[in-house]
Automatic annotation (TrEMBL):
Residues 142-240 form the HTH araC/xylS-type domain. This is AraC family transcriptional regulator. SUPFAM superfamilies: Homeodomain-like. InterPro entries: Homeodomain-like_sf, HTH_AraC, HTH_AraC-typ_CS, Tscrpt_reg_AraC-type_HTH. Keywords: DNA-binding, Transcription, Transcription regulation.
């Protein structure tokens, strides 16, 4: 292993065991992702430079970039990925940008909270979340489940999903039955409950934000859905976690 490659590998692993986020670094290191919220900035490298747009996501890969802000009010978040195989979206969705602004710039939050939020944001912008599969890496069932996972904040329906994959309702029913899956909308419900439960138990993100992240317009309808399917309200789950802490 050459000296430069070893140094890059060492730096990447060192960063992964440190803080998982930064809002004021002037350098983007290997294994990091930058999301621009406000203002203008340029990422510079000896061989190239890149000027970012608001909402854009930039992945450093194995290179380092200096960060040059062009405005005093520039806002950006740097996340340390600790993973080599993730592909990230080119732009952050509106909910991700709102979460970043609230969690890292708006009100003071604990380090535990910010680190949990950073991990959740990485999952939101990653394009290859792990989905339970039948063993075929590019099977149609995996593609459908991936689509559902990536769009839980939308008003998902059988019609929307069949249209996206150019399938009839009967074809998708047979596909899910053949693969041993639950009916498609039951799978949607399970994925929503799983995501909501994880956020309630492992983060301090507000119940309203959690509701929006899985497709509910308000916390009341989300609470009714959650309690009906789990036997406990979101507030009960959150209170139990506070008691444990």
């Amino acid at each position: 292993m050459s000296k430069n490659i070893f140094l890059t590998y060492f730096l990447h692993n060192l960063l992964c065991h440190m803080q998982t986020y930064s809002t004021d670094s002037h350098r983007l290191n290997p294994g990091q992702v930058l999301i621009l919220l406000e203002g203008e900035l340029t990422l510079s490298h000896p061989e190239k430079s890149h000027t970012m747009d608001i909402g854009e996501i930039f992945e450093s890969g194995l290179q380092s970039f200096s960060i040059e802000s062009h405005e005093s009010q520039t806002k950006y978040l740097i996340l340390t990925t600790c993973l080599d195989s993730l592909n990230f979206a080119h732009e952050a969705d509106e909910l991700s940008l709102a979460l970043i602004d609230e969690d890292f710039f708006d009100q003071p939050k604990s380090e535990l909270y910010k680190n949990a939020s950073a991990q959740y944001l990485l999952q939101r912008i990653a394009q290859n979340d792990t989905i339970p599969s039948s063993g075929k890496p590019d099977s149609l069932i995996e593609q459908i489940l991936q689509f559902i996972q990536n769009n839980l904040e939308e008003k998902l329906s059988v019609e929307l999903i069949t249209s996206e994959f150019k399938l009839s309702k009967m074809q998708i029913v047979r596909l899910f039955a053949k693969e041993g899956k639950q009916p498609i909308m039951t799978e949607v419900r399970s994925l929503r409950l799983s995501k909501a439960s994880a956020l309630l138990e492992r983060s301090e993100i507000s119940i309203q934000q959690i509701a929006a992240s899985i497709g509910f317009a308000d916390s009341a309808s989300f609470s009714h859905f959650f309690k009906k399917n789990t036997g406990k309200s979101p507030r009960q789950i959150r209170d139990e976690q506070k008691w444990l802490i």
